[in-house]
Design goal:
By secondary structure, the protein is mainly alpha-helical. It has 17 helices and five strands. Strands 3-4-5 form a three-stranded antiparallel β-sheet. A two-stranded antiparallel ribbon has the order 1-2. A hairpin with a 6-residue loop joins strand 1 and strand 2. Helix 9 packs antiparallel against helix 10. It is globular and about 80 Å long. The N and C termini lie far apart (64 Å). Bound molecules: acetyl coenzyme *A (ACO).
Length: 428
């Protein structure tokens, strides 16, 4: 017998059998529940989508209680150890690890598309010297839609693949450009002999040397950080990507919106917020007073807590280990000691333990980025580069899912009842 949920409507005494599939009932099955035939029918109310699945997905699996993260079934720990970002992005986008030939072709396609149109550079030059890199980044990604009108062919699989390649290839160049714009240095052309992350470091940090040689430890650390950030199922920015994409707009416009969501301090802005918080705390002796303010609800311990993870974020564990390797090269980030002490206290303190608040991916990533020489306001951009792969994979999955339509939530109207327009002189 199929699993069902029996609902009794006390208003009418009627019973309804609602099918259960994958531990879920379909919200539309509730619509038949009504008192009078001309009523709209029962809805669910779920602000912030705390308990609503909006899609079926084969890309990323998270078990927040156990701290498990899988891309296409592969544990994040194994990918962080054995894979690189380009291979992982292929896996996320196409569902399988590439063969040698597929990987060679994929890497060649990406390196062939790393150049930016000169007018994108001119467009970015229009920003003020102190413009936030994320504001510039998301504007440039949106502007790309005007350079590639063919991207509107969203139901052409070949065209979709081309836009995936273009976006993954070009976002590091945009990120590097916005960084160099802020510090007043000329744009560096991509070096296609380097790895994805090595070339990104080249475009960021090359000075007058003929050839930039990335430090292998920093190059690998950046690549691992990119692997860890590549996808994270239906988070806020990914839902935005799917929502905007559901209107059938081109992927550049949708991705600009997703990047805007990532800009917010509760999402991709959190690692920046962690460092600001550590700077504000200032020294070890101020930590107890800070924790007291957090517990009184006056502050948030940034980099702690997660909507899904109710145990240690598996990405945070990998990043914490990576931090040691990076600090051997760059020297210790002086804020690390404070971060470790905050974590030590929080993992023992009843307030954090009872709310199951653990370090998330952002708690340590900012310390690494800062040690590598990135200014704080570049952090969300560093998140957006790898997440581009996840956004594009989720976008394609949404477009090719026959159950998906334009996203359009319902509301419970709580405003005024119908009333007549009042002439201005009669208003009080
Ligand atoms: N510091 C202190 N208290 C916290 C924190 C925190 N970082 N996070 C949650 N809480 C408390 C809340 O005050 C609440 O307590 P209450 O029940 O007494 O009111 C309880 O824990 C539950 O918190 P919610 O806000 O309901 O949790 P939600 O799932 O809505 O929020 C979020 C998740 C936004 C990540 C939150 O934990 C937070 O603001 N963390 C800090 C920002 C951060 O690190 N964001 C990065 C997330 S990872 C990412 O986007 C890549």
């Amino acid at each position: 017998m199929a699993d069902t949920l029996t609902i009794t409507d006390n208003r009418t005494g009627k019973q309804y059998e609602i099918p259960i599939q994958d531990g879920t009932i379909r919200a539309m099955d509730l619509r038949q529940i009504k008192v009078k035939p001309d009523e709209f029918g029962m809805m669910t109310y779920d602000p912030a989508f705390m308990n609503t699945a909006a899609c079926k997905s084969r890309i990323t699996f998270i078990d927040g209680d156990k701290g498990i993260l899988l891309y296409r079934g592969y544990p994040i720990e194994q990918l962080a150890e054995h894979s690189d970002f380009l291979e992982t992005s292929y896996l996320i986008l196409f569902g399988e690890l590439p063969t040698e030939t597929q990987l060679a072709e994929w890497s060649r396609d990406i390196t062939m598309h790393t150049m930016l149109h000169e007018n994108i550079k001119k467009f970015l030059e229009g920003f003020r010297y102190d413009a936030h890199p994320m504001g510039m980044f998301l504007s440039a990604v949106g502007a790309l839609s005007t350079f590639y009108p063919d991207a509107k062919n969203i139901f052409d699989a070949e065209s979709r693949r081309l836009q995936m390649v273009r976006l993954i290839a070009k976002v590091p160049g945009i990120a590097a450009y916005v960084y160099r714009h802020n510090i007043g240095r000329p744009f560096v052309l991509p070096d296609n002999e380097l790895s994805f992350s090595g070339n990104f470091l080249n475009m960021l940090f090359k000075m007058t040397e003929l050839r930039y040689k990335p430090h292998p430890v920093l190059e690998r650390a950046l690549d691992v950080l990119f692997i860890l950030h590549a996808d994270h199922e239906q988070n806020c920015s990914t839902s935005v990507m799917r929502n905007i994409g559901s209107t059938h707009v081109d992927p550049y416009s949708a991705l600009a919106g997703a990047a805007a969501a990532l800009y917010g301090p509760l999402h991709g802005g959190a690692n920046e917020a962690v460092l600001r918080m550590l700077n504000e705390i200032g020294s070890m002796q101020n930590i107890p007073a800070f924790i007291k303010r957090v517990k009184a609800g006056e502050e948030r311990l940034m980099g702690f807590g997660h909507r899904v993870y109710k145990s240690y974020d598996p990405r945070a564990k990998i990043i914490k280990r990576m931090a040691d390797l990076v600090f051997e090269v760059t020297g210790k980030n002086p804020l690390l000691e404070m971060a470790l002490e905050l974590e030590r206290i929080a993992l023992e303190d009843e307030y954090f333990v009872s709310r199951r608040l653990y370090p998330n991916v952002d708690f340590y990533s900012g310390l690494i980025y800062q040690a590598m020489g990135f200014p704080l306001d570049m952090f969300p951009v560093l998140f957006a580069i790898p997440r581009t792969a996840g956004w594009m994979a989720q976008w394609e999955e949404m477009l090719t899912d026959p159950e998906q339509k334009i996203a359009r939530p319902r509301q419970i109207y709580t405003g005024s009842a119908p009333r007549d327009y009042a002439a201005r002189e009669k208003r009080r």
